[in-house]
Each structure stands twice: as structure tokens, then as C-alpha cells.
Design brief:
Blueprint (H helix, E strand, L loop, with lengths): L1 E5 L4 H12 L3 E6 L15 E6 L7 H12 L6 E4 L5 H11 L6 E4 L13 E2 L11 H20 L3 E6 L1 E3 L15 H8 L4 E4 L5 E2 L1 E3 H11 L9 E4 L5 E2 H12 L5 E4 L1 H6 L5 H9 L4 E2 L2 H6 L9 H14 L8 H23 L1
Parallel strand pairs: 1-2, 1-4, 2-3, 4-5, 5-7, 6-15, 7-12, 8-11, 9-14
Antiparallel strand pairs: 10-13
Helix pairs in contact: 1-6, 2-3, 3-4, 7-11
Length: 350
């Protein structure tokens, strides 16, 4: 397998990159090189080639020249872009990689699916429409642009839609600040209440990045995946109460939940909760993975959330670089929770 990844060291892509190298593949990473050391490529049988390039800033000709200098002749079996977020990004990828690969995989998002949903069960044929989140609308526009190039010019696309994928470096949550999840973990450890959107009963799906990687590599070089869109998620459905309870159990602390309506959170904060909650996590989602399992026979998600989150908590607690303090978000949580309590008192006493 000869693959080129744009990015390659994020939550999703790191696990895929490691798996390819472990399987002896030849992997080219096109990025700015700031996090490539996380792959520890020297310890794996595969070959890692780094191409120092800014895919967004460099010209198309410059990018092609750098790729050819590093990779020589011949096509890549797979090119995958993990950091394309706008139609302009997708159009530039087409300009660069048309003719250079046998398969181009675009990382879209399951948040692109219709909000609110007309059916609780999501398949790949569920309409794409999200009026609440620009991020999702841009992903939809990227899919449409690439699909047009597939239909008109035979550009060999596969569209992959991840949902909430996590790894050992960050605790997956519904509500957190701009500096990540640590401050919520810290609140739990200190016995402070943590905000759960809604009443915590809506359903969600968490997917460990090792499971995502096994499914993704099963799509790579897969002729049956060309021209197809497929989501990659676990089959496990959890309520947000169960998710937060599993995190608290991994920390060995009681969960003190403060339930706040999603629309209230969106209106009283500078965080993008209109997109992240109203346009995504506030909705109950259950994924039908029949198509993925047809394309990748024998695949199933192995990591149960209560098991995976224990590994994540252990890693986060033992690595200071995963513990970004966020006092601004901490104070905001206190104000929101106090406002709710005050409102309850006023209504009771009126």
C-alpha cells in the first residue's frame, strides 16, 4: 500500500497512520511536520516519508513538485485529506491529485446529516442538511464538489463520515471550553458539578480511534468503496448520562450533574454551542453500519466506551500536556449553574 495523507497526526489520522506503518505500508505525510514524531515510525516495519508543505498556502504547482520530488513516479494507491474543511480546500485537492491517485478519500462528518432528523436511525442515504452549523454545511459542499468531479471526470472518491471519535489524549464530552476537556475532568475530581446539555437522555455514539482505523484501512484500496459515502462509527449507543457516568467511574468520583437546556447554553456563551449542540450533540443519533460492514467484511467495533474511556483517563492523568487549564470556562460553568439555581428559587418563591 502506497498512501499519502494530508495531515496524518490528528485524533483520527494518527491511529490510521500507525496501523499502515505497522502493516508495512509506505506512507507519505504531507504536512508542516509539527507532530510527526507521535508516529514513532522507526519502530514499525513500514516506510514513512515526510513532505514539508502547507497544502493551504503553497501553490498547486509547488505542491505537485514537492510530492514528485519525494515520491518519484507512479500513482498513490490512496490519498486521504484529514484537514479539508471548505469547498476551496476540496477544489485544490482535486487540482493537485487528479491523475496522481487510484483513490481519494475525503474526511467529511456525520454532523452533515439532517438536523433535526426525520428518523432516529441514520444510514448513508439520510439527507445531508444542517442549518445550525457552518462547519457541517462546508463539509456538505465539499462532498457535492467532489461527487461532481467523480461523475463528470471519474475522480475516484470515497467519502468517509466520522462521528465522535476519541483517543487517549482527550476525554470526549458534550460541553467543554475552547481549551479542551481537562477543565471538566478537573471539576469532576474537585467534586464540582459539571454541565450536561438537556436532560442527559439523548443518545450518542462514541468511537475509539483504533476501531476507526481498522475500518478506514479496510476501505483503502477497496474498489467497492469508489464513488461511495460511508460513515464509520461504533454500534454502541449511549445516553449522555451514561457517558458522563462512565467518565466519573473511571475517575472514581461521584457524578454531580447540572442539566442545562442546549438552547440556553447556546444563547449565553461565546462558545459555538449553536453548532456543536443544536447542530450536533443535542440530537439523538443511532447509526446503521450495514454498509460499512458490507464494504469491510468482518469489521466490528471492539472497544466498548466504558473500557476505552478508562485508558483515556489513565493517559490524561499521567500526562501534563493533556491537562490544559481553562479558568475562563470554569468560571462560566459556575455562573451558568448559579443562574439556573437562582431561577429555580425565584420561580418557587413567586
Amino acid at each position: 500500500m502506497r498512501a499519502l495523507f494530508i495531515g496524518g497526526t490528528g485524533t483520527i489520522s494518527t491511529a490510521i497512520s500507525k496501523r499502515i506503518l505497522e502493516q508495512g505500508g509506505e506512507l507519505f505525510l504531507l504536512n508542516r511536520g509539527s507532530r510527526n514524531a507521535v508516529l514513532n515510525a522507526g519502530e514499525k516495519p513500514g516506510k514513512l516519508v515526510e513532505i514539508a508543505c502547507d497544502i493551504r498556502a503553497d501553490s498547486v504547482d509547488s505542491i505537485i513538485k514537492k510530492i514528485k520530488a519525494a515520491a518519484g513516479g507512479g500513482k498513490f494507491d490512496v490519498v486521504a485529506d484529514f484537514i479539508a474543511f471548505t469547498p476551496e480546500h476540496a477544489a485544490k485537492d482535486y487540482a493537485v491529485f487528479n491523475g496522481l491517485c487510484r483513490q481519494y478519500i475525503f474526511i467529511s462528518s456525520a454532523s452533515a446529516y439532517q438536523k433535526p432528523l426525520s428518523s432516529y436511525l441514520i444510514t448513508e442515504s439520510t439527507p445531508l442538511a444542517n442549518p445550525y452549523w457552518e462547519y457541517s454545511r462546508n463539509k456538505i459542499a465539499c462532498e457535492e464538489l467532489l461527487t461532481e468531479q467523480y461523475r463528470k471526470n471519474g475522480f475516484p472518491i470515497t467519502l468517509v463520515r466520522p462521528s465522535h471519535t476519541y483517543d487517549e489524549r482527550s476525554v470526549p464530552l458534550g460541553v467543554h471550553g475552547s481549551r479542551g476537556s481537562w477543565q471538566v475532568v478537573k471539576r469532576m475530581k474537585e467534586g464540582k458539578p459539571v454541565i450536561i446539555h438537556g436532560d442527559g437522555t439523548s443518545l450518542w455514539t462514541m468511537t475509539h480511534n483504533s476501531d476507526f482505523a481498522r475500518a478506514f484501512t479496510g476501505l483503502m484500496g477497496n474498489i467497492h468503496a469508489i464513488g461511495e459515502a460511508v460513515h464509520i462509527t461504533s454500534d454502541e449507543s449511549l445516553s449522555w448520562n451514561q457517558i458522563y457516568q462512565a467518565i466519573a467511574a473511571a475517575l472514581d468520583v461521584p457524578l454531580k450533574a447540572a442539566y442545562i437546556p442546549s438552547d440556553f447554553l447556546a444563547q449565553c456563551s461565546s462558545y459555538d454551542f449553536t453548532g456543536g449542540l443544536t447542530g450536533d450533540k443535542a440530537n439523538s443519533v443511532v447509526f446503521d453500519n450495514t454498509k460499512l460492514k458490507r464494504l469491510v467484511p468482518g469489521f466490528y467495533a471492539k472497544v466498548r466506551f466504558d473500557q476505552g474511556i478508562r485508558e483515556t483517563i489513565d493517559h490524561v492523568l499521567s500526562h501534563k500536556d493533556c491537562q490544559a487549564e481553562d479558568p475562563e470556562f470554569d468560571a462560566w460553568c459556575d455562573r451558568v449553574i448559579a443562574a439556573r439555581e437562582q431561577a429555580v428559587k425565584q420561580v418557587k418563591n413567586s
